[in-house]
Amino acid sequence: MKLTIHNTWKKILNDEFNKSYFQDLKNFISEEYEANTCYPKQDHIFEAFNKATFDKVKVVIIGQDPYHGVGQANGLCFSVNNGITNPPSLKNIFKEIDSDLEEVHDKENGDLEKWANQGVLLLNAVLTVRAGEAGSHQNKGWEKFTDTVIKTLSEEKDNLVFLLWGGYAKKKGRKIDTAKHLVLTSGHPSPLSANRGFWFGNKHFSQTNNYLLNKGKTPINW
User: Fold this and answer.
1) Long-range contacts of 156-159 (CB under 8 A, 24+ apart)
2) CB within 8 A of 70, min separation 6: which ones?
3) What's the predicted TM-score (pTM) here?
4) Assuming Cys at both sites, which of 20, 79, 105, 186 could form a disulfide with 112, CB separation 3.0 to 4.6 Å?
């Protein structure tokens, strides 16, 4: 696995990259990509970090695994490549944006790169997956790495917004310093959760922008 990650992150996470667990993870990922079809493409594994550089991060959205279908995963959580049918969770995210901000979102393009370019870190807890096998790269070291990323952001930066959707993300973000950052939680945007009333109406997108404005930051164009 090539460590194609932006220099701002490489500098911050250098100690982590040199730890034995991460070396084991790199070896595992290299072997997996050689022996199987895996997603996202190798040069997009750290896409979330390359689009939302450390100095730019204002908002953090935590996902779980990359999509495991053909052509879907692009290294940004909840995001799919343009031209790919939007998964149900992403459709529900767009519906909530439309309702919350009273605007019509481009529902055809599910590539969230435009968010990442504005400083939204779209971070999956696990950055890779074997094709057609959800969770196949869990418990190999990615979770430890992304825990460090979240801890580092919480400690080193101020006035970030963390969006934690669903039980997994809430648990992942339990050590975020709420005295320094805004942490918004809700149910997951998946149909199972959303249709039971745990997603729609959370107004996370307007709350995020109001907080950023109050802290003198540019709001996100969702």
Assistant:
1) 156/12, 157/57, 159/211, 159/212, 159/215, 159/217
2) 131
3) 0.96
4) 79
C-alpha to C-alpha distance for 188 and 134, rounded to whole angstroms:
17
Q: Are 166 and 193 in contact (CB under 8 A)?
A: yes
Question: Cα–Cα distance between 181 and 158 in angstroms, integer?
Answer: 6
Measured between alpha carbons, how far is 27 from 139 in angstroms, rounded to an integer? 14
d(Cα 218, Cα 211) in Å, to the nearest integer?
Answer: 10
Q: How far is CA 218 from CA 9, 97, 118, 209, 221, in A?
A: 22, 18, 9, 8, 9
Is residue 106 part of the annotated active site? The answer reads no
Which residues have C-beta within 8 Å of that of residue 136, sequence separation ≥ 6? 68, 129, 130
- Tens of pLDDT, residue by residue over 105-148, are 677 899 999 999 999 999 999 999 999 999 999 999 999 999 99
Rounded to a whole number, what is the distance in angstroms from the first to the last CA of the chain? 32
pLDDT in tens, 166-184: 999 999 999 999 999 999 9
> Which residue out of 15, 65, 147, 177 is catalytically annotated?
65
User: How would DSSP label each residue in 128-195?
Assistant: -EETTBTTTTTTSSHHHHHHHHHHHHHHH-SS-EEEEESHHHHHHTTTS-TTTSEEEEE--SSHHHHT
Please state, as a whole number, how many other Cβ atoms lie within 10 Å of the Cβ of residue 211: 19
Main-chain dihedrals φ then ψ at residue 113, nearest 5 degrees? -55, -35
CA 183 – CA 97 distance, rounded (Å):
18
